[in-house]
Write a structure and sequence with these properties.
The chain is α/β, with parallel strands linked by helices and 809 residues long. The chain is built from 25 helices and 22 strands. It has a six-stranded parallel β-sheet with strand order 12-9-13-14-16-15, sandwiched between helices. A five-stranded parallel β-sheet has the order 1-2-3-5-4, with helices on both faces. Helix 17 links the parallel strand 15 and strand 16. Helix 1 crosses helix 3, helix 1 packs across helix 5 and helix 13 runs parallel beside helix 17.
């Protein structure tokens, strides 16, 4: 019920006055002190944006005290300061484990100010001391060279979410809450952010939160009405429509609306208590009364003016409560000298002399309002997840090895094999509840269904008799067809000290390109902060890949995520393309043990030849790249050509081409190289996994032609190797050709098939003369035969379907 809250204010009654006839949730002294604390946070926020001297205005403000370049965002900041002080209150009253996610990340001044006031900031950064000198440094560093950014950045204690790119706050909050039964994540959502696709979908995350085993998320939608220069949608619809929207999404919305501080404090305190009590009742019912009813979790809608308490009018234009308050509401520079006095008047309106003592420290009666120790939201261990991170209990991946009596003798489905290994990982870590598998309804399709032998899909919605593997609690979250939610949930899960992986179709992982970028940036910055502990790596398993989409066609064919990933810092990204199941097991065992990386693993789900025994696979994956001696014949001489491959399908086609070459040109010396770790191709000066020039040249030679079969776009290999000595490199890969056809025909269309590869070799070796010319003719004939056969029979030639290594070499 929502009877305790305000509704849309009537024309004859100011918002917030619904509680005017109550005794009040806040006593007069508590109200006074909370408002003073809010004023202190607002004062520090304005000071960060504008000042680098005279922090307490103990002398008349001059232009010399103002930063030469004033940068920041004021509009969201006072509202977030207001929320923070009220969250502090309920943390203390209810003894809560809670931290704060700032969706409107431009409100960096608010989080920095509040973590400073509670003492966390000075503990993390002792040079920003709790005195006037510390205030000067606090103000100067904000949006200043060598300082901190204007967002709620990794440098901000208590943050797991920067918010520079909008849309992911609520997904991160739910990820943090999974398997944290005592945690409440207060997630502040900007009304501009609420218009993004990921955020609009994230409201449905409440259908996946188990009140018995997970924590809670308290969304606080901050309706201040405007984006940069436009109104926001949710602020301009009628109250009834807004309330119905959230009720339709399964929430119980409570409204706090108005602009009079005293009334708003009282209303917010009352609503905040009601929300916490609702959460506790929901959890009590689920945990102690076995109530399996899907709860309607509480949320808060805070409607307050944009730029609240800031300048109301500047140069004749309304500022407070308009889009003009979004960034810097008052230009203070040599072109606007009169604005210095207006800034001074604004800052003095907060009465800093009542808030800070003679040394510049927050007075004790206000400091007492903040929680202590780890209950401070800036010091909550969940917001520095590496503190809580425990190693996974790992099964022996050797137990899942595919028996390979000789290279290519048996076929297997690589991800099907991996699924049994992941099943065992899930089972071993079920008790400590720190491992989850995420995906957009593709876990079974990607052949990982073995995990459902030991766990379920977490799902809190209705179930029907033909559903499979749905339960209120489970290690798999794949029932939401949203890559954005899966990525956001997993990131929140990792950032709060747990482990997991994201399995996806390769083409559609591109939907989260930008989310990956933001996480990689976060890892890069946090790796440079000694107080930030390392977290578990973000692991992607990309299956149903470009070469196995013959049934879905062109729309499902895109290996470009690899190109995107390698643009990030070399200290962060790792890319693996195991050629078979045993290599996949070895690689994934490694990835799940790593810290602070993004690991991308590309693997197929269709049956393909298996090349290496498990012992050989472990050695090969440890090295990352190597000569396959059993496929080469250049042991006693210089090779005429190097045949290199990276990825399961290119490996198959390169080896098939080698078998044709060895049959028709038995004197030709061929070296076969397989690459598992893509970053081995980069120089060691560019990537920590890269080969040094000596080792690269010893493998690939300095001048022999290299025919390289690659899983993705060919130019990626050229980018990675452009500094290498051997420029005689010819790469075949995906070049945007595809349709619904046979598996082999996709390779033909992209000229990655064995028949084109053989022709490539002949073209690079003119000394082959007429032998080469006749072999090329045979290959051209084969391509025509192939086309005619699939058009008539709808499947590949028997010699393609039944090919085995060793039969024709």
């Amino acid at each position: 019920m929502t009877a305790v809250t305000s509704t849309q204010a009537s024309p004859n009654r100011p918002a917030g006055s619904e509680f005017s006839d109550r005794q009040g949730t806040l006593g007069s002294d508590e109200l006074r002190r909370m408002d003073a604390y809010w004023r202190a946070a607002n004062y520090l926020s304005v000071g960060q944006i504008y000042l680098y001297d005279n922090p307490l205005l103990r002398e008349p403000l001059t232009l010399a005290h103002v930063k030469p370049l004033v940068v920041g965002h004021w509009g969201t900041t006072p509202g977030q300061n207001f929320i923070y002080v009220h969250l502090n209150r309920v943390i203390k009253k209810y003894d809560l484990d809670m931290f704060y996610i700032s969706g409107p990340g431009h409100g960096g001044p608010a989080l920095v100010a509040n973590t400073y006031l509670e003492g966390t900031y000075s503990e993390v950064y002792p040079n920003i001391s709790q005195d006037e000198a510390g205030l000067k440094k606090l103000f100067t560093q904000f949006s200043f060279p060598g300082g901190i950014s204007s967002h709620v950045a990794p440098t901000t204690p208590g943050s797991i979410h920067e918010g520079g790119e909008l849309g992911y706050s609520l997904s991160h909050a739910f990820g943090a809450a999974f398997d944290n039964p005592h945690l409440i994540v207060a997630c502040v959502i900007g009304d501009g952010e609420a218009e993004t696709g990921p955020l609009a979908t994230a409201w449905h995350s409440n259908k996946f939160l188990d009140p018995a085993t997970d924590g809670a998320v308290l969304p606080i939608l901050h309706l201040n009405g405007y984006k940069i220069s436009n109104p926001t949608v949710l602020a301009r619809i009628e109250h009834e429509e807004l309330e119905q929207f959230f009720r339709g999404c399964g929430w119980t919305p409570y409204f706090v609306e108005g602009d009079e501080p005293e009334k708003m404090h009282e209303l917010m305190a009352t609503v905040m208590e009601k929300a916490i009590e609702d959460i506790r009742q929901i959890q009590e019912n689920a945990r102690n009364k076995n109530d399996a009813t899907r709860p309607r979790w509480p949320m808060i809608v805070l409607r307050s003016p944009k730029g609240w308490t800031g300048p109301k009018v500047v140069d004749g234009l309304q500022i407070e409560g308009t889009f003009r308050a979004h960034q810097v509401p008052l230009l203070v520079d040599p072109e606007h000298p009169d604005h210095v006095k207006q800034l001074e008047s604004w800052m003095k309106s907060y009465k800093a002399e009542e808030l800070f003592d003679e040394n510049g420290r927050l007075i004790s009666e206000l400091a007492e309002l903040a929680p202590k120790g780890d209950q401070r939201m800036g010091a909550n261990p969940h917001a520095n997840g590496g503190i809580l991170l425990r190693d996974l209990r790992m099964p022996d991946f050797h137990l899942h090895a595919v028996s390979v009596p000789s290279p290519g003798a048996v076929d297997a489905q690589d991800t099907l094999v991996l699924g049994k290994f992941l099943r065992d990982v899930a089972k071993l870590n079920d008790e400590q509840r720190n491992f989850r598998i995420f995906g957009p309804d593709e876990t079974v399709s990607n052949m990982l269904g073995a995990v459902f032998e030991v766990t379920n899909r977490q799902w809190d919605g209705r179930t029907e008799k033909n559903d499979e593997f749905l339960a209120p609690s489970g290690r798999v979250l794949d029932s939401m067809l949203s890559e954005h939610q899966c990525e956001g949930w997993l990131e929140g899960y990792l950032l709060t000290g747990r482990h997991g992986l994201f399995n996806s179709y390769e083409a559609f992982i591109r939907i989260v390109d930008s989310m990956f970028s933001q996480h990689a940036k976060w890892l890069k910055v946090t790796s440079e902060l000694p107080w930030r502990r390392k977290i578990a790596s973000l692991n992607y398993l990309l299956a149903s890949h470009v070469w196995q989409q013959d049934h879905n066609g062109f729309t499902h064919q895109d290996p470009g995520f690899l190109d995107h990933v390698i643009n990030k810092k070399a200290d962060i990204v790792r890319v693996y393309l195991p050629p078979d199941a045993n290599c996949l097991l070895s690689v994934f065992d490694h990835c799940l043990r790593t810290r602070h990386y993004v690991n991308v693993v590309v693997a197929g789900k269709h049956a393909l030849p298996q090349w290496l025994t498990m012992d050989a696979a472990v050695v090969h994956c440890t090295e990352g790249v190597g000569i396959w001696q059993w496929a080469s014949n250049d042991q006693n001489a210089e090779p005429d050509v190097v045949m290199a491959c990276c990825g399961d399908t290119p490996t198959l086609e390169i080896l098939a081409a080698v078998s044709i070459l060895r049959q028709h040109l038995p004197d030709l010396k061929i070296r076969v190289i397989n690459v598992v770790d893509l970053m081995k191709l980069q120089p060691s000066t560019e990537h920590p996994h890269g080969l040094n020039d000596t080792d690269y040249d010893s493998l690939f030679t300095k001048d022999k032609p290299i025919i390289f079969g690659f899983h993705g776009y060919p130019w990626l290999v050229h980018r990675l190797t452009y500094r290498r000595t051997n420029r005689n490199l010819h790469v075949r890969g995906y070049k945007e050709e595809g349709t619904i056809t046979t598996a082999f025909d996709i390779r033909v269309q992209n000229e990655l098939d064995r028949f084109h590869l053989v022709q490539d070799v002949v073209d690079r070796l003119p000394h082959l003369g007429s032998k080469g010319a006749y072999l090329k003719q045979v290959m051209r004939d084969k391509l025509i035969e192939h086309k005619n056969y699939i058009d008539k029979h709808g499947q590949d030639l028997p010699e393609i379907r039944n090919w085995k290594w060793g039969n024709s070499k």
